Structures are given as C-alpha cells and as structure tokens.
Amino acid sequence: MNFVIATLPGDGIGPEVVNQAVKVLSAIGKKFGHQFEFRYSPVGATAIDALGDPFPEETFQNCLTADAVLFGAIGDPKYDNDPKAKIRPEQGLLAMRQQLGLFANIRPVTTFKSLIHKSPLRPDLVEGADLVVIRELTGGIYFGQPRGRSENLKTAYDTCVYHEHEIVRITELAFDYAAKRRKKLTVVDKANVLATSRLWRETVQNMTPNYPDIEVNYMFVDNAAMQLIQWPKQFDVIVTENMFGDILSDESSVITGSLGLLPSASVGTHTSVFEPIHGSYPQAAGKNIANPIATVLSAAILLEVGLGLVEEAKAVRAAVDASLEAQMVTEDIAFNKSKASSTSGVGDWLHDFLLK
Ligand code: IPM
Ligand code: MN
C-alpha cells in the first residue's frame, strides 16, 4: 500500500533521530511491500528562522493531508531565557495540537531489562512496571481564556477550563486502553480544590456503569506523584488533564531509566502525530550521539495505530529488542561507552537487520 507520512524533524536532535526512523520505515516498506512517501515540513525554531512562524500554514496542510505525522522535537535554548520573546518554538507544538485536534497524548512506559540499572529507583520497584499515561492535550490551563497580564504588568493570570464533552472523549479512549490491558484505570485530579477536577470526577463517575469490567480509582495529583515513585507497578492506565499529565508523564518516563527509548502518540480529530518524548536535547545536536530508539519506537506506534500495520510494527519492535540485546546502542545506554554506536550507526544496523 501507499502511505504519505508528513515528516517534521524540528529542532535540536530532531533531524538526526527522525532520519533513523525514516531509514527503519524504508526498510519496512521494502520488506512488506509498502510505499512510504516522506513529505518534509519545518516546525519549531527551525520554522521561525525560515518562515517566521513555528507552525506555518504549509506545515499544517501537509499534516492534514497525510496518513500520519512523524515528529522529531522542538525547542531552542536561545528562547528559553527570554521570557519577552514574542514568538516561541513551543507555540508551534501547541498550534499543531489545537489545529489537528490532538486531544489525547498517549505515553506508554515500559521497562527494558538492560536499562533497569539506569532507573533512579530500586530495581525491585521498577522491574516489570508497565503503565500508560493518557494526557488530555487540547484543553485546561494550556488553552483556557482569559489569560495574560494586567495593564501595569504586575498581575498575570491563566484560566483552567474543561467542558464535559472534552472529558468524555478522553475518558472513553482511556477505558478502551484499560480494556485491552490489565483493566485498571486511575483518574488523577485535584477534586479537593479545583472545580474543573470535580467536573472530571463527576463525569467519569457517570461513565463507569458502562464499563463494568474496569476497576476505576481516583487519586489526587500530589498523591499520584508520590505513588508513582513508591509503587509504580500498581498503575495500568492513568488518565488526567493537560497540566497534570505534562508533569506526571515526565515523572513516569524516568522511573524506568528508559527516557531515551520512550515513544508517544497524539491522537484526535485529524491526523495522528508520533514523536519521541525526550525533546530537542540541544547539547547533543549535530554530534551524531543522540539515541534514536524513542523515535524508531514512535515509528512502530505510527505503523500500528496510525496505519493499522500490526505485523510491521512488531517487526520494528523486534529489531529494537535485537539491537539492545546486541549492545548496538548509543553511548547514553551503552555498558561500555568506548564501544557505543553513533545515532546513524544504530539506524543503519536496524535497517540492515530488518532486511536480513
Ligand atoms: C510536552 C512538552 C510541551 C508541553 C512543551 C514543550 C510546550 O513539555 O510535550 O510535554 O508542555 O506540553
Ligand atoms: Mn512536558
């Protein structure tokens, strides 16, 4: 079959890691007889430099008319310490989420045996941990109005808004994930303080009778932050609002020691987006040392969830497992740093392995 993949490498290490995922997808195309057309567009700081806009209209149209979006990373340190900058790379990400209607961000957190020693937690706490954080991505305090500064600039405000329909659609998706997994759903909120959280809780409570097989529990976000560290294995599917999800998904991703390996998917009303969760890592940009596995595994979810190619996705995951086994890995996770591979070296190995 023929597929169009909008390819948005973005900033920092984005282009290097996306190149490796493209290599892997090309190998899959050859192996399984598919034609992938990679249609490139700028996003983030790169797009500001080129076109003055972090999510240009042509990039949006590319995404809208593609079968899936493969995304690298955005962010550039030159904007981080300038709170007065009028245009910021991150606005490109938020615009993409809003315009493509990407209301759900799905971050699976799994453990890799060879990386457990990298976890900041005791091995017995993390070994076998397997959870998914489902974060609402187009509502809440990230987008609520009004927001801004008072005239004298001495006061600033953001508004957290949720509508019932936004809670229903993400919770349905979370229930579906739980049904396919260990059938446990944890709803994270701050219902002891926030009105929006009380609407979340009420809305989910009204939905639970439709899902009698799923065990639902509710946890305040501060407690959830603690429980994730104390006993991560208790979690199966976590669903939560935008800002809590931003924080808890970063926390979840480091507990297994596998930050450089974790992929994510953002799905919604238009084309879905697949991206690594590690960000633009500017210190490593251009050095050919960044770990491409999170992007390669994002390509695996792209195949499975975005294009419905389940066997192809399995082949990618098997190749990644083989590369870890063979210690064909970048320096961040190599046992012996002097024998570490480069970013492109790992991509080439995976490509060749798939076509063996
Ligand atoms: C993420 C990032 C973004 C967010 C930033 C870069 C705007 O942290 O994808 O989690 O806060 O959503
Ligand atoms: Mn984040």
Q: What would you say this structure looks like, in words?
A:
The protein is of the alpha/beta class and 356 residues long. It folds into 2 domains: 1-101 and 280-356, Isopropylmalate Dehydrogenase; 120-256, 3-Layer(aba) Sandwich (Isopropylmalate Dehydrogenase), CATH 3.40.718.10. Helix content is 42%, strand content 18%. The protein is built from 13 helices and 12 strands. The protein has helices spanning 14-32, 45-51, 57-64, 77-80, 89-99, 123-126, 164-180, 195-207, 221-230, 242-255, 293-306, 310-325, 343-354; strands at residues 2-10, 35-40, 68-73, 104-110, 130-136, 148-149, 156-157, 184-189, 215-220, 237-240, 263-267, 273-276. The strands form 2 sheets. Strands 2-1-3-12-11-4-5-10-8-9 form a 10-stranded mixed beta sheet, sandwiched between helices. It has a two-stranded antiparallel sheet with strand order 6-7. Strand 6 (148-149) and strand 7 (156-157) form a beta hairpin. Helix 1 packs across helix 11 (293-306). The chain is globular. It binds 3-isopropylmalic acid (IPM) and manganese (II) ion (MN). Residues 90, 93, 246 line the site of 3-isopropylmalic acid.
Identify low-pLDDT runs. none
Report the CATH architecture of the largest domain.
3-Layer(aba) Sandwich
Shape, principal axes of CA atoms: globular
What is the radius of gyration?
A: 20 Å
Integer count of domains: 2
Distance between the termini: 22 Å
Task: Spell out which ligands are present.
Answer: 3-isopropylmalic acid, manganese (II) ion
Strand content: 15-25%
Total count of strands: 12
